[in-house]
Amino acid sequence: MIGQARAVLELDDIQRGALSPRPSPYAATYILFRVDERAHGRELMRRLSAVVTSAADTTSPLGETWVSVALTYHGLGALGVPRESLDTFSWEFRQGMAARAPALGDVGESAPANWEAPLGTPEVHVVLVALAPDGAQLEAAVDRARPAYHALPGITAIWRQDCHALPTETEPFGYRDGISHPAVEGSGIAGSNKLETPLRAGEFVLGYPDELGGLQRLEPEVLGRNGSYVVFRKLHQRVAAFRRYLRDNATDPADEEWLAAKIMGRWRSGAPLALSPDHDDPGLGADPYRNNGFGYERDDPAGFTTPGGCHIRRGNPRDAAVAGVPRLHRMIRRGTAYGPPLPEGTLEDDGADRGLMFAFVGAHLGRQFEFVQSEWMNDGVFFGAGDARDPVTGSGDFTIPRRPLRRCLRGLPRFVVTRGGEYCFMPSLSALRWLGDLED
Length: 440
Hints:
Blueprint: H1 16-19, E1 26-35, H2 38-48, E2 66-71, H3 73-78, H4 83-86, H5 91-95, H6 101-104, E3 126-132, H7 135-149, E4 155-165, H8 221-224, E5 228-237, H9 239-249, H10 253-264, H11 282-285, H12 311-315, E6 332-338, E7 355-362, H13 365-377, E8 396-400, E9 407-412, E10 416-426, H14 429-436
Antiparallel strand pairs: 1-3, 1-4, 2-3, 5-7, 5-10, 6-7, 8-9
Helix pairs in contact: 2-7, 2-14
């Protein structure tokens, strides 16, 4: 990074959904489309280019409401993007998430054969995401977007998932969510960790230098510049099973909360163990200026405070000396809850589908999302724990370093099951217009 000029992002050409943190509370929806007629697909792109919100539009009369659109590899093909252009996309994107399932740990119950239709199939072409502070404003946003695909018989809506964020900002397991957000150079959006130097724009947006000085480009340039890769995953959460496991392996309610904190790396309030190791601190957890300002290497290299195998330390080792340079694997992550909350204290599953719609935004599917998923979440070699998996999303054993004796949780079941997902590309507004103007 030494000697490299600071990037100036073309925010008016970048979709707001790529860079902007989400408001709280909020409601969101994901709508999937299939393109049956190429001409109608191109018309859809032309119309959506006038509906999608840009990253520069932060003072819109609509406030914290925006619409984003992304396309799968099959979707780009359905629009008639030339083969020489399709071949310039990353090979992971061209393969698709379902084909990458073994590398991602999507096996057994999480295997593509068990995914919710039509996720992971060639039927999914376009992903429309709308977000607003509440349900009424969300439906208004969808209504504004509806003319873009309405009365186009060659466009078929094939799936919808409504999501929400609670005023408590918690996800279904009960932890405060949406805390960590990296600072992207040139975006004008502050990161949530004051100790983290802003990352080069090219880590998240194509066409700009990344941390290694490289540029991710597509052909033609208008197709790739100011675009980002996006990963969408529907993750079912077994909340009752999670609660029962904590209860059955704890000595009392206080110990239960201590175990929950060690598994996640934060107390349920969002207070990190790194800053509040012995007890929860709800005030700290609710303070966005303090709850993410910490590292591991200087004060806790062995993980006695924040276990190396806990969920947040695996997902972002921060300044820790681990396999790979953490900055090269940094991602913009977003999780949005779906389904009804399981009533507090309930230990039996009620049969409802609940969990997270997970989204990742970046410029490098391989060394960002796939690396973190395969090397950090689904393996423990990088911190000396063999093949141990993430205790929240995986299964197996989980060791908590402790003096004089460590504590080991045995036989964690799978609390999270993948119900499907897609690798997508979120084009710039210019690229949407280019796609709309394609000719055979």
